[in-house]
Write the structure tokens for this entry.
Amino acid sequence: MTPLSVLDLAPIAEGADAAQSFRNSLSLAQHAERLGYRRFWLAEHHGMPGIASAATSVLIGHVAGGTKTIRVGAGGIMLPNHSPLVIAEQFGTLESLYPGRIDLGLGRAPGSDQATARAMRRNMHAGPDEFPQDVVELMDFLSDEPRQAVRAVPGTGLKVPIWILGSSLFGAQLAAMLGLPYAFASHFAPGQMMQAVEVYRASFKPSAQLAKPHVMLGFNVVAADSDEEAAVLATSLQQAFVNLRTGRPSRLPRPLPGYFETLGPMERATLQDVLSCSAIGSPQTVQRGLRDFIARTGADELMITSQIHDHAARLHSYEITAEAVRT
């Protein structure tokens, strides 16, 4: 059985606020733990009215403190926004509080627009081009015997598992070179997925952390008791994508029956492209979608994201998904 994990964007739904989002994230993590999901990851975004996980490390601590066994981590920390030492200290702290349960996924995108990135960093000297060097520096801070004079306290010797995140061949090549597990953002940028997976597996070099390649792929699921109900629930995700792509980022909208049919040809084509790695429908439809995707990609693990406005419906979607891979 292919392991399933959860990617939570800590959505702020229309009619709610960040505080409600955090309560929902913990509720979802506890639900996922009961259902047997392997990991619960949160992603760093900034300046997004519909995403509450900007202070990612803080939120990871909140979720880890309210759960017992599920691994909790970042999917991911956008390393160009931070010094490697700060992230080593933050995740060293989390690992010390919740030993054996913390993951650290690293990405090289800003997780925001350029104006927000400038506001975060104060300058743009640090950037994606320095990402490989920063990853190696961060790994060194967490190692048993760092080569650097400065020590991460806590952090040194804790060897928090590091993942490389990506949506292009760059991340695949880096993860393979460093012998790290690789997570591909196919839930919103599927274009180079198969090529990146092939490059990663073909180029992988074993490391102290990982003996053989491990690929986790992002996958959207909107599951409900019927195809018709799921199609309506999925309009929240569709609206959010269109709003974002047209420069009008919003809170996660309420479902809008018939929304897809109101769109023009370009908007429809965009949605069909970015959401091509998705299963939307009844338990049977979702089961077929998951099985077909796993067979096509050979994924070692799936990271399921379900952007659903109603929290109870979202919990039910993850329940249906968990059952779909067991039967």
Observations:
- Residues 18-35 form the longest helix (18 residues).
- The mean pLDDT is 95.
